[in-house]
């Protein structure tokens, strides 16, 4: 039985190599259909691509982001959304690197590019907002407690709303969402997924979030081992949450697994993703 110790060491080393050097760079594309009677005819078949939690850093350098842009453009998004954490702001003295702007500008989406703040987009201080100006220079509209109308040439329209970050910002869902028209399709961007539980009284058809990284490391029997505030309950994938509304309108939440890493520079069982949503009009 003297071989057991060395074998365990080898297994651990293989695990660490894969989790550090391989899986963090094995991006996958996930595809989803969102069916709703509130999708206008002019938006039937419209493609929304979600990118989240890139955490650009020495571990995830700009060249990775450059290849991500090519992959996203290859998916031909009509609408592109970024749900927070452009850079990794764990380092003291972190500053948003403006060299990302040309790559953000290359991202193409004819109906618009939209973003919200994540907790890492503030830099070290809660007062500074480092990533927003870079995203805006790259052609994104950064939504901070506001709603934007997206319209087709025939007049059909949907809305996209964005709430400020729940960890470091000042989200105001009442001001942002109370006036949404009932008979329209509403998309909501908010970095932290667990905020959904306090938003189900509003007529939201799809909430897109990130933040949790899907737990980043998911082990057999143990599940996700990394959980963070406002990302503990809803970790990854699709959820339908009980609505507090009187009608039967479902509240759908999708939690993006993210593309980068933070804190622990490992991924296992939680591949980084790009999520694609196709809107379908349901009679």
From TrEMBL:
Pfam families: Metallophos. SUPFAM superfamilies: Metallo-dependent phosphatases. GO terms for biological process: lipid A biosynthetic process. One of its GO terms (cellular component) is membrane. This is Metallophosphoesterase. Transmembrane segments: none annotated. InterPro entries: Calcineurin-like_PHP, Metallo-depent_PP-like, Metallophosphoesterase_sf. It comes from Cohnella zeiphila. Residues 47-214 form the Calcineurin-like phosphoesterase domain. One of its GO terms (molecular function) is UDP-2,3-diacylglucosamine hydrolase activity.
């Amino acid at each position: 039985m003297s071989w057991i110790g060395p074998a365990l060491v080898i297994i651990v080393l293989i695990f660490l190599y894969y989790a550090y050097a391989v899986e963090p760079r094995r991006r996958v594309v996930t595809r989803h259909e969102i069916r709703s009677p509130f999708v206008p005819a002019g938006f039937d078949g419209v493609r929304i691509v979600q990118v989240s939690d890139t955490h650009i850093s020495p571990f995830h350098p700009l060249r990775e982001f450059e290849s991500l842009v090519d992959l996203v453009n290859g998916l031909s998004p009509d609408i592109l959304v970024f749900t927070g954490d452009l850079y990794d702001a764990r380092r003291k003295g972190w500053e948003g690197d403006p060299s990302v702007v040309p790559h953000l500008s290359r991202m193409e989406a004819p109906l618009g590019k939209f973003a919200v703040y994540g907790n890492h987009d503030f830099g070290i201080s809660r007062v500074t907002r480092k990533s927003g100006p870079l995203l805006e220079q790259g052609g994104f509209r950064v939504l901070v407690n506001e709603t934007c109308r997206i319209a087709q040439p025939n007049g059909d329209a949907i809305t996209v709303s964005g709430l400020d970050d729940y960890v470091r910002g000042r989200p105001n869902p009442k001001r942002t969402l109370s006036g949404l028209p009932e008979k329209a399709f509403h998309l909501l961007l908010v970095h932290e997924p667990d905020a959904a539980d306090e938003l189900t009284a509003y007529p939201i058809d799809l909430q897109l979030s990130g933040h949790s990284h899907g737990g980043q490391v998911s082990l057999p029997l143990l599940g996700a081992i990394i959980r963070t505030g406002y990302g503990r309950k809803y970790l990854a994938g699709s959820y339908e949450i009980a609505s507090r509304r009187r009608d039967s309108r479902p509240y759908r939440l999708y939690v993006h697994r993210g593309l980068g890493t933070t804190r622990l520079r490992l991924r296992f069982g939680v591949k980084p993703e790009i999520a694609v949503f196709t809107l379908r009009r349901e009679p």
